Structure formats: C-alpha cells, structure tokens
Amino acid sequence: MADLYDQASETEALALSAALQAQQRKAAASVQPEATGECLNPLCGEELEPPKLFCGPDCAREHARRSK
Q1: CA dist., res. 60 & res. 39, Å (int)
Q2: Whether 16 contacts 31, CB under 8 Å
Q3: How far is 12 from 51, CA to CA, in rounded Å?
C-alpha cells in the first residue's frame, strides 16, 4: 500500500508528463524559422552558414523580442 508521499510523487510525475506532452504539441504546432543564409535579426543581416539562424545570442534575443 502506498503512503501519502508515494501518492504525491505519482501525482507529480503524471502532472509533469502531461505538461511535457502539452509543450511538445505546442512546439510542433508553432512556426519554426528557416535558415536563409543570413542572421534573422532584421537589424543585423550578417551572412551565415546554414543551418545557423542567428550570428549570436544577442541577435537571437532581439529577434525573439521583436517577434512577440
């Protein structure tokens, strides 16, 4: 027979599994940017080798900020 802590752990595991599945469905349904050969930050445009999307983390953050 499971005690209260075992039940809580099982409930937590089920909730985590459901949340991960929901996030995976959301990510699969979202539009993913494609590599174009240049940085996707509209303020940059530096040439890149595919499959890179951004020249660095600053440009990635700027793109994410502008895409919201």
Answers
A1: 9
A2: no
A3: 37
Q: How many domains does the chain have?
A: 2
Q: Give the list of residues 6+ apart from residue 40 with CB closer than 8 angstroms, or none.
A: 33, 53, 54, 59, 63
pLDDT of residue 39: 95
Higher per-residue confidence, 14 vs 67: 14
The answer on 50 and 20 residing in a single domain is: no
Distance CA 29, CA 68 (A): 16
Q: Give the pLDDT confidence of 9-35 residue by residue, as tens digits.
A: 999 999 999 999 999 999 899 888 889
Query: Domain range holding 24?
Result: 1-30
Q: Which residue has the tokens 């985590």?
A: 16
Position 1 scores a pLDDT of: 67
Q: Which residue do the tokens 């990510």 mark?
A: 27
